[in-house]
Structures are given as C-alpha cells and as structure tokens.
C-alpha cells in the first residue's frame, strides 16, 4: 500500500514480486471447480499470496452491470447451463451449477472471501478482463474498494487501455499468447507493471529483454514442479498454476 493513502500501486505490487510468486490459477483449478469460491479458498489455504480469476460483465434484473467470475464466454464447459454468458442475467447465471453444487461467483464475493481469509497479509488478486466491456465496471469496482491489492490483466489490450484511461494507478499487465515484436512497446504504452505470458513462449532472451526494460514476467499455466523450477532459475517473477499444492514449495526466496 502507498503510505499516504489506501491506493495499491506499482510500488506496492513490486513487493509481491520480491520473491517467486505462486499464483492460484482460477483459484486452484486442478483441485476444485475453477473460478468458484472453494477453488479460491483452496488456493489461499495452500498459502498462495496471489490468485487469478477471469471476469465477464452481465446485467442484473435491474439492468445494473455486474462482474461475474467465469473463464469462457459460454457457460457449457464449466456449468450445467448452455449458451453465451452475455445472454444470461446475473440471476440466471447464479442459478447454474459451476461444479460440486457451487455457483458462478460475482467478483465482489471473491474479494470478500479474500478479505475475510487473510487478516494481515493481503493476497494479490489478478483480475483478468476476459469479456468485452469489463474495463469500466472493473475500474468502478476498484474505485469502491481501494483496500484491495489488485493486478488487472487482459489479452485484449484495447480493453486494458480502456481500463488504464479510467484508472491510472492500479498495476496492469498485458497478456501474450505468442511472442510479438512490439511487446515492450505495448507494455510501455499501457503503463504496465509486468508482462504475463504463455509458458511456451518463454525463452531466456525474452526474460532478459523484459528484465532489462524493467518488467517482471509472470508465466501461465505451469503445473509441473520441474518446469516451475526451470522458470524460476531463468528469472521469471512467478507462475500461474492449477496446482498450488505442487508448486507452493517454490514460493518465496
Ligand atoms: O492470466 C493467466 C491465464 O489465466 C491466461 O489464460 O485462458 O487461463 O485465462 P487463461
Ligand atoms: Mg485467466
């Protein structure tokens, strides 16, 4: 936290990367239904100092925009429902079974769980803007919750730029699935705090370039201990994992 106010900023984020960060991907997606409250609880119980989740924006019965935590833009892979997330109201989504009788949580439910779970050490929440038009409601949500430690990321760099235009403090990270020549320019234009990249594009030269430019790199999705050890030795700042139970021993130092 910034000493003068409650704003979580780039400097506060850097503290999370002072040692190797094991980030619970969609909670602990290899151990509980992804992006559900038990999944996030599991990751936190296992000692994750950071969790990752995906958000989509939907309307509720009063036509107010609400952020829901789900990965796909359709509901059939992860719930007993069918169709596009955007064709559902919040109330309809909430009735679906997202695994083991759990519902699709609202972002506010996850942040409340995180706040309740840890009294002292504040876990970092990586909000991935997955759906369209998530930038504005996310910026609004964070404005109302300055106490949260948050990193906002997205593969959709326009959505991320829209978020940055509304919020110039919260750390952000562009996501990359493949190496691109202009990755560092993108990060610089967005005022990013780090780059989040796919495991298959990680090469020593990439980590070196990012590090020389002052950007830590976070890597998704790493479930094997040996691979995480290799990445850690390369200087990667942290990894997203479905199996925090397997990787937690690498956390810290
Ligand atoms: O944010 C890291 C990772 O979650 C990005 O890919 O498809 O799992 O959301 P995906
Ligand atoms: Mg994600």
Task: Describe what you observe in this structure.
- This protein is α/β, with parallel strands linked by helices.
- Helices cover 33% and strands 19% of the residues.
- It has ten helices and nine strands.
- Strands 1-2-4-5-6-7-8-9 form an eight-stranded parallel barrel, surrounded by seven helices.
- Strand 8 (217-220), helix 9 and strand 9 (238-241) form a beta-alpha-beta unit.
- Helix 2 (37-45) packs parallel to helix 4 (107-117) and helix 5 packs parallel to helix 6 (157-166).
- The longest helix has 11 residues, at 107-117.
- It is globular.
- The two termini are 21 Å apart.
- The relative contact order is 0.16.
- The mean pLDDT is 95.
- The structure holds SN-glycerol-3-phosphate (G3P) and magnesium ion.
- SN-glycerol-3-phosphate binds next to strand 2.
């Amino acid at each position: 936290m910034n000493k003068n106010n409650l704003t979580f900023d780039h400097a506060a984020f850097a503290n999370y990367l002072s040692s190797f960060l094991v980030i619970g991907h969609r909670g602990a997606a290899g151990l509980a239904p992804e992006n559900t409250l038990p999944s996030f609880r599991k990751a936190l119980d296992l000692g994750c100092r950071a969790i990752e989740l995906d958000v989509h924006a939907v309307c509720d019965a009063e036509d107010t925009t609400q952020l829901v935590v789900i990965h796909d833009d359709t509901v059939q892979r992860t719930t007993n429902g069918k169709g596009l997330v955007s064709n559902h109201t919040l109330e309809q989504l909430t009735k679906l079974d997202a695994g083991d009788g759990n519902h699709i949580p609202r972002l506010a439910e996850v942040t409340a769980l995180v706040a309740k779970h840890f009294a002292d050490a504040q876990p970092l929440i990586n909000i991935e803007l997955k759906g369209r038009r998530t930038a504005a409601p996310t910026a609004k949500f964070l404005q109302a919750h300055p106490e949260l430690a948050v990193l906002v990321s997205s593969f959709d760099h326009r959505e991320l730029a829209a978020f940055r235009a509304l919020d110039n403090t919260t750390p952000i990270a562009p996501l990359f699935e493949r190496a691109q020549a202009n990755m560092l320019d993108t990060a610089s234009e967005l005022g990013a705090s780090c780059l989040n990249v796919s495991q298959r594009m990680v090469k020593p030269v990439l980590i070196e370039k990012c590090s020389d430019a002052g950007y830590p790199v976070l890597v998704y999705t790493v479930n094997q201990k040996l691979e995480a050890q290799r990445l850690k030795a390369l200087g990667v700042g942290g990894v997203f994992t479905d199996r925090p139970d397997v990787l937690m021993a690498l956390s810290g130092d």
